[in-house]
């Protein structure tokens, strides 16, 4: 078991396999995209499997595959098959925008993928285009249908943005009436790939909940699972649940059980830090697994207490602005 210097158990890795994405969501990156990472700088699948195996052998039980968009990367299904076979790994989950995912869903089910987070910020096709700069909502909804047909646990992630999709909060929440899904509303964060990320948060978790209560006053608080990033709710008589993630407010930091590895191989012990070491580079230098383990444990022994401390300790004393595509969504 891995613990940090605050006594928190670390058993969850978020692994970003690429920074590339086939959408251009304005809250994640500029219209022209990013300066994509060169192929030689990306972790290879063998390197990712090596790192994952090392971490699983030392207490990581759950790995979430993120991007960018994971299914852009060639041979992703072969990698998922190999990853799912790691002894001691209890759960592999995926975060995807759903544009390319639907054809892979049957195989995901066969591999034992237990849960998929699907990004849907709006159910309106015109607003979807306005937010993502791409007309892909029909393909995303095909993925949602396929996940439900194959009984894969599905969580819809919707970033709440002032003046962009607040009118979608109620239609998205209403999906839980007939669908056994979790619709999770996320506070907008500053990770948009540009220096100027605009004014402070307009829609925090309190305002989001108040908006939902206007239409569903009977909504009830339900228990939150261990290490949950969301406050969870249920509308009586509905099949699914609703969650609200205070990502900007950083209210879940106290029980954080996760670390991240970016597409470059950088280890992030907090979403808001700027990387504490590069595992890929150490691996390519020929360090042994024992040496890698020692270095990773040392990094976790200096982990910030929360996102605010991590932001204060960043090497570059500038406002946070990286794209989530380069961090791992």
UniProtKB/TrEMBL annotation:
Residues 5-226 form the Radical SAM core domain. It catalyses: GTP + AH2 + S-adenosyl-L-methionine = (8S)-3',8-cyclo-7,8-dihydroguanosine 5'-triphosphate + 5'-deoxyadenosine + L-methionine + A + H(+). GO terms for biological process: Mo-molybdopterin cofactor biosynthetic process. Its cofactor is [4Fe-4S] cluster. Residues 308-329 are annotated as: Disordered. Keywords: 4Fe-4S, GTP-binding, Iron, Iron-sulfur, Lyase, Metal-binding, Molybdenum cofactor biosynthesis, Nucleotide-binding, S-adenosyl-L-methionine. It is an enzyme of class 4 (lyase). One of its GO terms (molecular function) is 4 iron, 4 sulfur cluster binding. PROSITE patterns: MOAA_NIFB_PQQE, RADICAL_SAM. It comes from the Bacteria. The keyword Iron-sulfur applies. This is GTP 3',8-cyclase. It comes from Ginsengibacter hankyongi.
């Amino acid at each position: 078991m891995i613990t940090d210097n605050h006594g928190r158990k670390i058993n969850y890795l978020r692994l970003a396999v690429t920074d590339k994405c086939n959408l251009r969501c304005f809250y994640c990156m500029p219209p022209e995209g990013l300066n994509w990472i060169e192929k030689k700088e990306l972790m290879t699948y063998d390197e990712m499997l090596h790192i994952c195996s090392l971490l699983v052998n030392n207490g990581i039980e759950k790995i979430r595959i993120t991007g960018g968009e994971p299914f852009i990367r060639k041979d992703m299904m072969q990698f998922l098959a190999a990853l799912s076979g790691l002894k001691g790994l209890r759960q592999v989950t995926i975060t995807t925008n759903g544009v390319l995912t639907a054809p892979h869903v049957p195989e995901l089910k066969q591999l034992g993928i237990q849960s998929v987070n699907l990004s849907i910020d709006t159910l309106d096709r015109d607003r979807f285009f306005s937010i993502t700069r791409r007309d892909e909502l029909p393909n995303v909804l095909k993925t949602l249908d396929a996940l439900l047909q194959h009984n894969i646990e599905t969580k819809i992630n919707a970033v709440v943005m002032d003046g962009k999709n607040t009118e979608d909060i109620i239609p998205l929440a209403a999906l839980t009436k007939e669908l056994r899904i979790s619709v999770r509303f996320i506070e907008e964060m500053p990770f948009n790939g540009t220096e100027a990320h605009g004014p402070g948060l307009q829609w925090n978790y309190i305002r989001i909940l108040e908006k939902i209560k206007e239409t569903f006053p009977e909504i009830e608080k339900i228990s939150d699972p261990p290490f949950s990033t969301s406050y969870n709710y249920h509308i009586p008589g509905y099949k699914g649940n609703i969650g609200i993630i205070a990502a900007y407010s950083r209210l879940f930091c106290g029980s954080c059980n996760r670390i991240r590895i970016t597409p470059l191989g950088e280890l992030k012990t907090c979403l808001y830090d700027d990387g504490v070491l590069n595992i890929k580079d150490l691996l390519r230098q020929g360090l042994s697994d024992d040496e890698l383990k020692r270095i990773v444990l040392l990094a976790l022994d200096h982990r910030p207490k929360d996102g605010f401390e991590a932001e204060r300790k960043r090497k570059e004393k500038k406002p946070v602005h990286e794209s989530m595509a380069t961090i791992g969504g």
